[in-house]
C-alpha cells in the first residue's frame, strides 16, 4: 500500500524532512497522491509535519491500532507476522476460526477496533468499545490436548508480563482467565479448539484488554477498569499488541518444550486469592475451601473439609467467599 510505503520512508529518516520530490521518485507516485496519503495518515493518528520547502517529517506514531505500526513493533518469529486488522467485527475469535478453516497459518492474528458481539467464558457477552485491544491468534502448537488446555494460563502470564514491562503495573490473575487490577477486571482470555484436536490441532486464543477508554464506556454493573483509568493517559495499542505477542510466543514455545513448571510458578506468583477461602461453582454444586494454586496439569486445587479437590476450567466459576469478586 502506497500509504504505508510513504510511512516506511518517513520512519527510516526520523530526524529529517523527506522532500515530496524524493518520495515521488522513490515510490513512483505523483505529488498530489503523496499529499492525499499524508492526509489519510494524519486521520489515522500519525503526526506528520509538512514544510513547503523541506517536505515531510514523521513526528509521532499513531496510538490507535494500525497494521503497519504493529508490524514495525513486532519481534516475534511467527505470531502476528500475518495480521488482519478490521475496523469492526462481531468477534475476532469467529473471524480467526474462519481463517483457520481456510488454512490460516500458525500465528495468524486478527485484531478489531470494535467488536459488536464479543464473548467471554460461559457464553457471556464481552463489551468491546473502541479504544480497546481485541485480538485473536490462530495457534497450531505441537501439544497434546491436555497441554493445549494450559495455553490460557500461558496467555495470562504473557499479558501481565507485557503490561508490567511497558507500564510497570502489577496485574493479578484470577483463575482461569481474568486479569484484574485492585479487584477490577482489566482483561480476559478465551481459548477455543477448532475441530477435533487430534486431527486439526488448532486453537483460537482470544484476548481482550480494556485500554484507551474511560470506565464509563462499560456497563455500570461490571466491576471493571481500563488502562486509561489506571494510568491517566492513552497507551500505544500497537506496541501493546506486539509486546503481548512476543511474550505469548515465548510461553507457547516453553509449553512445547515441556517446561510447564516454570510457567506454573510464575502464574502462582500473580494468582489472586491464593491461600484464601473461596467457593467453586460447578453447575448446581458449590464447593468451599482454601485456594491452593494449580496442579501440574493446570487444574485449580482446592483444600476442602473432604480433602484436596481439583477442577478444570470448563464450567467452573471461582468466587471469593465474601463477594462476587476478589
Automatic annotation (TrEMBL):
UniProt-annotated binding residues for biotin: 91-93, 115, 185
Domain named BPL/LPL catalytic: residues: 68-256
Cellular component GO terms, alphabetical: cytoplasm
GO MF annotation terms: ATP binding; biotin--[biotin carboxyl-carrier protein] ligase activity; DNA binding; transferase activity
Xref: Pfam families: BPL_C (PF02237), BPL_LplA_LipB (PF03099), HTH_11 (PF08279)
Listed EC numbers: 6.3.4.15
Top-rank EC class of the record's enzyme: ligase
Family according to the record: Belongs to the biotin--protein ligase family.
NCBIfam families: birA_ligase
Protein name (Swiss-Prot/TrEMBL): Bifunctional ligase/repressor BirA
Organism field: Candidatus Desulfosporosinus infrequens
